[in-house]
Specification:
This protein is α+β, with helices and mostly antiparallel strands. Strands 3-2-1-4 form a four-stranded mixed sheet. It has two domains: 114 residues, no CATH class; 68 residues. Helices cover 55% and strands 11% of the residues.
Length: 183
């Protein structure tokens, strides 16, 4: 196979990500199935997060890696049987969720710094969740189609404000159907 035709891990990652998004938006898979399939795919890639963010692809991969771990473990922590039979495991899962979300937010910060906050916009999003309402914000990278991050990190929010890319308004999320769907 020629070097031109060989797919990189990033090609494979982005193609799978797009395929899952397409399946979800068409209604072929639920949010729960999306979260599970995304997690399983990232685990099958067997590609650990990058220590250095020196490209958009590495930054996006790190965000997706930690986000997948957080969402999958959050999903597992809601299992009624697990809650009843293994509350200590649920506690461990919730610690993993917390750590993965923290690392996800670090990844976003590092990527935004790499991009020098160019063509970035951020704002609070309208949320159906009482817990997330007036906490959850969206970060849109306008130079990259369909690249949208979400966070509730106060530290990240303060940095976005310092960099002048956060607007103190509430908008409907660009991916509202996904963000406001329970799982």
């Amino acid at each position: 196979m020629s070097a031109q035709l060989r797919k990189t891990t990033f090609d494979q990652f982005f193609e799978e990500r797009e395929a899952l998004i397409y399946q979800f938006t068409k209604g072929d898979i639920s949010k729960r199935e999306f979260i599970e399939e995304h997690y399983y795919f990232i685990m099958r890639l067997n590609l650990k997060p990058f220590k250095r963010i020196d490209s958009f692809e590495k930054g996006l991969y790190n965000y997706q890696y930690f986000n997948a771990i957080a969402k999958y473990n959050k999903l597992r922590s809601k299992d009624k049987k697990l809650i009843e039979k293994h509350p200590e495991l649920v506690k461990e899962l919730l610690e993993k969720v917390k750590e993965a979300y923290h690392r996800k937010d670090e990844s976003v910060t590092r990527l935004l710094r790499f991009l020098d906050y160019q063509n970035v916009e951020s704002y609070y999003i309208k949320s159906k969740s009482e817990f997330l309402d007036n906490k959850l914000f969206e970060i849109v990278l306008n130079d990259y189609e369909g690249v949208i991050f979400h966070s509730i990190s106060r530290g990240l929010l303060e940095e976005l404000k310092r960099e002048g890319v956060f607007c103190e308004i509430r908008k409907k999320s660009k991916i509202d159907e996904y963000v406001n769907k329970k799982y």
